[in-house]
Sequence to fold (385 residues):
Amino acid sequence: MTGDDRRPARKGLILSILLLALVAGSAAAAWWYWRGQWSVTTENAYLTGNLVEVSAQIGGTVVWIGSDTNEPVERGQELLRLADGDELQQLALRKSELASAVQDVLTLRAEVGRLEAERRLRVVTHRLAREELQRRQRLFPENMVSEEELDAARTREEETRVALETAELALVKARVRAGDQPLAEHPQVMAAAARLRSAYRSWRKTRILSPVAGEVARRRVQAGQQVSAGTPLFSIAERHAAWAEANFKETQLRHIRPGQPAEIHSDLYGSDVALSGVVESIGTGTGAVFSLLPPQNATGNWIKIVQRVPVRINLVEGFDREHPLPFGASLHVRIDTRDRSGPALVPDRRSGPLVDADIYAYQEEGVEEVIARIIADQGPGSQER
Fold:
């Protein structure tokens, strides 16, 4: 082949290359227009969620452990028990104190009845003494009674009057101590019942329950270990409430809005598994602001570094049991920013709690029945007159 023959072939190759480059450039431009400019992506993203710490509320020795690391638990499931010998002894003492308080009040109310009878007797005695004094006062001018007899009548009337006043005062005091409210509402009984409730709660605190449903991320305690109040025992991961935390460059935040859809892939499952998410909020500061040693840029050696801001993305489907992801798993996140109409900040406050771990009402379950039974067992006099 001569040089003249190779020139058309070379020109054809160059034109083919230029055409391919033009097609590739057009495709890249079209991709950027239809997808690239309407989305932002980052691989600096991780799965996270609530780690609920379970701690001991009282001190004691661990005698039973019901769950281990990586095991699922339900809300209210028993996780651990502490030795409860001392608590049971205190509970028995408080029960005895409540029974004694009930008996004391019943004794006071019986004393009120006795004092009422005594007052009635004093009223009659004083009336008779007064009538006798009045009779002798009428007879004295006629010399039918002596002055000594009149003085004796006066003394007797005075003594019976003082005795009546003393009986009335004692009755008033007894009525105040005994009260006229239902027996269970008497201050002495209520104080004893409050001490019993406290002892009952202390006993129930020897049973440690899971405050949320999830998985045991970490068990921190061993059987036989002596723990004190506040000692961490378990960490419970709420995997069903996990979310993605994507750290976007500050230059990518301009068009991100809460409510925008997101597509999430993980390094664990790759492109085979796609998760759907929704932007919930944009961080109030960069990661550097909340670091242990915040950067000090007021120096002459300052170098500008593009900062990253965390964006929280909720998973639409929640926890996927077919494709579980551990907390801290690396993610690839793409946010579709075509809808830019919403505000950059979260528009409304949360209507409910973020985490509801209040399950501690179980510590008083049954105590009111115990108190009512102790009061009722003291006999028929336990009911109000």
Observations:
- Residues 85-139 form the longest helix (55 residues).
